[in-house]
Amino acid sequence: MNISSGLFLLVGSFLCVSGGVGVLRFPDFYTRMHAVGVTDTLATAMILIGLMLQMPEGIVVLKLIVILLMTLFISPTASHALANAAMNNNLKPKLNMNEDSKGQTSSNP
Amino acid sequence: MKDLLAAIMLSGIYGLLSASFFVAMDAVDVAFTEASVGAGISTLLMLAAITITGHSEDPVRHKPVLAAIVVFITGGMLIYGTLDMPYFGTAQAPVHLHVVPRYITESMQEIGVPNIVTSVLASYRAFDTLGEVVVIFTAGMGVLALLSMVHGPMEKAEFESINDSMHEKYLILRIVTKILIPFILIYALYVQFHGDYGPGGGFQAGVIFAAAIILYAMLFGMRTARRVVNQALVRLIAAFGVLFYGSVGVVSLLNGKNFLDYSALSADPVAGQHLGILLIELGVGFTVASVMVIIFFNFEGRRKKSNTTETKV
Amino acid sequence: MILGLYNYWIVVVLMMIGFYIVIAHGNLVKKIIGLTIFQTSVFIFYISIAKVNGGTAPIIAEGIQLYSNPLPHVLILTAIVVGIATTAVGLALAVRIKEAYGSIEEDEIQKKDNLDC
Q1: Which residues of B touch C103 (CB under 8 A)?
Q2: Residue B158 — pLDDT band, cuts 50, 70, 90?
Q3: CB within 8 A of B137, min separation 6: which ones?
Q4: Is C21 on the interface with B (CB under 8 A)?
């Protein structure tokens, strides 16, 4: 029980850190939003499941399940809200990232 | 920072970090309040303010060298002043010795509420909490006095067209929010009544309740929100919360005991304490929720009438 | 001796940062942000005083002997909510100043005042 709970917590923390690295390293707003939206939701879910395994009986598990459901609803919606706001305010995604050696951009479908 | 938006976001993160620090310091009630107020409502109010006052600041600093010197001297004097203070975490510090052992040991017998912070806040120091509720009410009145505007009725056709155009843009958000808002309100009620047994109480519950209403107002437009949440009713509830709190104290007076002495409220003193704590936390929750709603609605209502597309902050 | 006092020094550093923001920046909203930082540093001061080594949160539970001090928690709880209320009034004043003077930079407000006198 402790091992599996510790495993979930570790995976959750790793996902969180990788989401943070993604925010810093990705080139464009939309790619950053995608990175952090996906990894943060999954990281929170992993951490909550790890906490649930720490104490598998009692009212605490019920409360943690409710928090998990809420997070699954709210976190992707928040990412959507940010991306929607950026789109409505005309922030263009950066599409031409590839240039071959002759200096001409390749056509992106 | 030249951009106020970034500065406000950073101050929200600062509030959240200090909330997690409070958890590490075993101050769970305070952490709850700081997370909801400092990281939530405060950021929201500042953002609402800068939509009116402008997003960026002038990079000129007033005499930065002189200010830095003053700051260093003051900081040095303060650090010199802390050299006599007790070490971090000692159990023999003066703050732990005089009144607090009585609160900790007697609270369960005299009041019967496991959360010592709630028992101190609502029973031992209830008079301070009354003063503080009045301060919150006064701040709400101050914002009303400064920022309130009368809104004329909008043409029904214009209202419908704005609503439809916004509906397209914010469809996913509106649907998810419609599902979530009842749960947020239920959570606020849970926090309100669970304040005796865990972290919680009137302040946090009021703020969460107001946050649900503000979420609705942000996503569905101010006109719809004003129709759903009648402004006159909200002001009435704000005043009623303070009146309710004071009247609990007056009832104690009329029964022959001191002001806000809850043992006068019922035959059994402990039951009287429970009843008194419940009633005043309700009063606090009413006032805090309605004042937060009043403040937000008045900030939003002050934006220029020419800005008819409701841009989300 | 030095290491036992580090919590006060953190508080002093935060307080001075907030103080610097208030006196050196000209924008009114920035000053209010600085005041918020100052306020939060005072809260951290009180809460760090309340902590007892080996204590837990002051909620009575079975088998726990040592609790952290609940009295500063009560004070700071009320202080946080009062702080947000006064911040709201300050921001409302900033909005009204913007409407009356057209800007919230201190220099421009003073210039307009000097012109009007």
Answers
A1: 54
A2: low
A3: B238, B239, B241, B242, B287, B291
A4: no
- Closest alpha carbon to B38 in B30, B49, B28: B30
CATH of domain C3-57+70-116: 1.10.287.3510
Residues 6 or more apart whose Cβ sits within 8 Å of residue B29: B115, B117, B118, B199, B200, B201, B204, C73, C77
| Record: contact B4-C73, CB cut-off 8 A | no
Give the containing element (helix H, strand E) for C90. helix C71-101
- Where do the domains of chain C lie? 3-57+70-116
* C84 has a chain B CB within 8 A of its CB: yes
pLDDT for the residue numbered B141: 92
Confidence of residue B138 (pLDDT cuts 50, 70, 90): very high
Distance CA B165, CA B205 (A): 34
Q: Return the structure tokens found at A83.
A: 């991306």
- Which residue, among C16, A25, C71, C18, has the nearest Cα to B125 in the 3D structure? C71
User: pLDDT tens-digit profile of B263-307?
Assistant: 877 778 888 888 888 998 999 999 999 999 999 998 888 875 434
With a cut of 70, say whether residue A102 has pLDDT above it.
Answer: no
Q: What one-letter code names the amino acid at C28?
A: L
Query: Is the CB of residue B196 less than 8 Å from the CB of residue B114?
Result: yes
Choose between B57 and C77: higher pLDDT.
Answer: C77
Which residue out of B18, B23, B44, B53 would a mutagenesis test of the C interface target, given it has the greatest number of C Cβ atoms within 10 Å? B53
**pLDDT score at B16:** 92
Tell me, what's the pLDDT at B169? 74
The ipTM value here is 0.90
For residue B174, give every residue at least 6 positions away whose Cβ sits within 8 Å of its Cβ, in sequence order, or none: B167, B219, B220
Q: Where are the domains of chain A?
A: 2-88
